[in-house]
Specification:
This protein is about 65% helix and about 5% strand. The protein has about 450 residues and is mainly α. Helix 4 (about 50-70) packs across helix 8. The longest helix has about 35 residues, at about 130-165.
């Protein structure tokens, strides 16, 4: 359905009330990461709904823990909060944020509007980072949980491909020049080994991920100490209870206002490393497709080129390389953010993190989904591979000739007056190569 705007284009606001929500989507920029590529589950993980539902859950956890530890919080207040976790008036929240210039307080007021009895105890003793940072940690943990099975599936599919082709000889390449023989399966095992390293790194960083918890404005828990009349045992228990409710076994023992931004750098480093692996795999596949030895899936009605009908472009591998470059470039954001945080915290992290963290996970998700699709449909052309081997076989035999000459008493490479084995063979090969080039001319 094409969007129709019949009003003056110089003032698009005048037509918005007459245009459906569906149509207005086409009048503003949409990120291709979510509009074209990302899986529904990863797109939801970084959605506004998931973010603000988690904020409300965290306010609920805080109130529950405070009630358990003796603060005067009523059951009906808890029940009211529980009943309104997903009842979010986004227009009201946007209105509040325009007025207050503070996203957390905008949502405190929006939540309070639908929870009037609980309003006095929402966000009690907390700072903005309580909901902001803890939600980011929850979302990153869950996002890693989405990525792990996808990464495992890619490894499994490529392992089958490697096993199926473990005995199929092919030219090995160094410097993209023909070298010794390897097998199609052996080459794939190089890819699998790197992916296994990525899987190990993802599992490690997920296990290492902790919860910020209830740490107060500068990480001293001063506001909570005041609430619990300097009872440090209760304050520590508050931290543990909230973490357990959120599904974390441990919290960061030391924080400023935020958890250390090194955590973001560590998480994105792992994703970036995976991007490096996938870029290498898909670059290899693009080169092999050019040689017509191995090809990614090409569907019945797929078009390789709008001009050249015969082309079978490796567009999935090309997409992976393009997105992997974007993922690798994103690592500089958390690196610089962690480096420039002043003292207990500065707010120049916020806008950057809103972009870099979701985009890194969304891009990683797209890369794994696409790589799985590629690895499930790889096509090998043994006759083409055999022809290439036969073309290079005489040259590859030279290394065996050198070893036979050395066994017969010839010096391999120490030159004196007598030509070495390596030098003799080198001269012959160069001569043959020159003749071959002249023949092709």
């Amino acid at each position: 359905m094409a969007a129709r705007v019949e009003s003056d284009h110089s003032n698009p606001q005048t037509s918005k009330s007459a245009i459906s929500t569906y149509e207005t989507d086409y009048l503003k920029y949409r990120s291709p990461l979510t509009a074209r590529y990302a899986s529904p589950e990863m797109a939801y993980a970084f959605s506004d709904m998931n973010k603000f539902v988690n904020w409300r859950k965290l306010w609920l956890y805080l109130a529950k823990a405070q009630q358990i530890l003796g603060l005067d919080i009523k059951d009906e207040q808890i029940a009211e909060m529980e009943a309104n976790l997903t009842n979010i008036d986004f227009e009201k929240a946007a209105e509040e944020e325009r007025k207050r210039r503070h996203d957390v307080m905008a949502h405190v007021h929006t939540f309070a509007k639908c929870c009037p009895r609980a309003a006095p105890i929402i966000h009690l003793g907390a700072t903005s980072a309580y909901v902001g940072d803890n939600t980011d940690l929850i979302v990153m943990r869950d996002a890693f949980g989405i990525l792990v099975p996808k990464l495992a599936r890619c490894i499994h599919r490529l392992a089958k491909f490697a096993d199926d082709n473990k005995s199929l000889p092919t030219l090995g390449f160094t410097h993209f020049q023909p070298a010794q023989l390897t097998t199609v399966g052996k080459r794939a095992s190089l890819w699998i080994q790197d992916l296994l390293m990525d899987l190990q790194n993802v599992e490690r960083v997920t296990t290492d991920l902790r919860f910020r918890g209830a740490k107060g404005t500068t990480g001293t828990q001063a506001s909570f100490m005041a609430l619990f009349e300097n009872n440090s045992d209760k304050v520590e228990m508050l931290d543990r209870l909230i973490a357990e409710m959120a599904g974390f076994k441990k919290t960061y023992r030391v924080c400023g206002q935020t958890y250390s931004r090194k955590v973001d750098f560590e998480c994105l480093s792992v994703l970036t490393s995976m991007g490096v692996t996938i870029h290498k795999i898909c670059t290899d596949l693009r080169l092999l497709a050019s040689l017509k030895e191995v090809e990614e899936p090409f569907e019945k009605d797929q078009i390789g080129s709008s001009a050249m009908a015969y082309k079978r472009n490796p567009m999935r591998s090309e997409r992976c390389c393009a997105l992997a470059r974007h993922l690798m470039a994103l690592l500089s954001d958390p690196m610089h953010t962690a480096a420039v945080q002043w003292m207990e915290r500065t707010l120049d992290d916020s806008a950057n993190r809103r972009i870099s963290i979701p985009e890194a996970f969304l891009t990683a998700d797209i890369l794994l989904s696409t790589l799985q699709n590629i690895s499930e449909g790889l096509v090998v052309y043994p006759r083409v591979i055999e022809r290439h081997i036969r073309q290079e076989l005489p040259f590859m035999a030279t290394e065996n000739i050198i070893m036979a000459m050395v066994k017969a008493g010839k010096n391999r490479q120490v030159p004196r007056c007598i030509p070495t084995a390596h030098n003799l063979v080198f001269r012959v090969v160069i001569s043959i190569s020159a003749c071959a080039m002249d023949f092709h001319k």
